[in-house]
Design goal:
Layout (H helix, E strand, L loop, with lengths): L1 H19 L11 H28 L5 H28 L1 E3 L4 E3 L20 H19 L9 H24 L19 H19 L15 H20 L7 H29 L4 H15 L8 H25 L7 H15 L6 H10 L7 H33 L6 H6 L1 H6 L11
Antiparallel strand pairs: 1-2
Amino acid sequence: MRLLNKKYYVLLILLIISCKNLFASDGTPIDSGATAWMLTSTALVLLMIPGLAMFYGGLVRSKNVLGTIMHSFVAMGIISVLWVVLGYSMCFGKNVLGGLFGWDKNYLFLGGIDKNIMDAGIPEYVFSMFQGKFAIITPALIAGAFAERVSFKTYCIFIALWSIFVYNPLCHWVWASDGFLFNLGAKGAIDFAGGTVVHISAGISGLVAVLYLGSRRGYPYQVIRPNNMVITMLGAGLLWVGWFGFNAGSSISSGLITAQALTATQVAAATGALTWIIIESLHNGKATALGFASGILAGLVAVTPAAGVVKPYGAMAISIFASLVCYKAIQIKNMLGYDDSLDAFGIHGMGGTVGALFLTFFIRESWMMEAAEAASDGTWTIWNQLGIQFLAVIIAIIFAGGMTFIIVFLLDKIVKFRSSEDHEMAGLDRSYHGERGYGMLNPS
């Protein structure tokens, strides 16, 4: 009997020790389930960046495949370091300069969050790393617009400056607790996972850069074909998988809203892809692999701001309309003749805008009830929210577009953004990296 009692004592001590690990130093409980999901989501969003690299890399000519892939991978290095040094502070610190951006010296180098547990029950380290992946992929998206024509060195400087002066302030306005768009109206501008912060800002920035830098040499008279559609399709598949972390992870929890966002993401991707190939079949008589991949992205981009607030039928409706709009945007690009190489604006800019605006008509009843209760005058309507969404979209377009023009203009005057004709004709791989993507194959 005494031996049995000793076993109970040992088990009790072990239980106490293990329970201590479920609380922060200040007694805040750690939600192990939410933390596990957020760790997974962080990895999934990081997976999207090599997925994007493959998607973009397969669409350019073989002489530029490594250079294009490097545009995504180098962002993983540059933006990760900047995020730790000052990005997190600028995005989620307290308002400074009238709310232009955030700042908190405790967030510099993540020095003050070592033992912090957030109200959601996850370590702040996890939240900061999750948000950091968004900061990485956004400038990498821009690279698709001016693929095959920019200096690698200047591109590296560009994404660093763009992250500091465009992404960080916009992120603070939309997602920080004291950001002015976060607090606009009854419940703020809705951007569940990055319609305005990520896709609209990247899309419009890509368009501005392209209009300034000009087309690739030979475009549109020279036929420019993808070098490897297999890589592109695999990249699209990785983006689809990673987007579950992108959207469902933005719930910063592991519960009902997580499941709702994940479901909306799956439905939107599938519906967008099917809609695109139906349009293609009716318009051109063929359903292409590139069309299916483009439809996946159109659906995913459009549902990103809406994933946590719409039901599945809403996600389907938004993605159908997004595929129609994005398909038409690419046709208009071809008519106007500007060279958005990989349709960063046509899909991300237009898809993000569709999602940010049209989610208003499919908001869940529970969200609408909360908004009505939160309204200071006791009233809230869909049209009020549509006005807020429209304002957020316009602010994102003007701010990102204007700042991008300033950054590109200054860089081009100081260090030259556009590749020289010799470098462009030889290809980015050989000119900037001294390598070839396909070994002994002809790099042209």
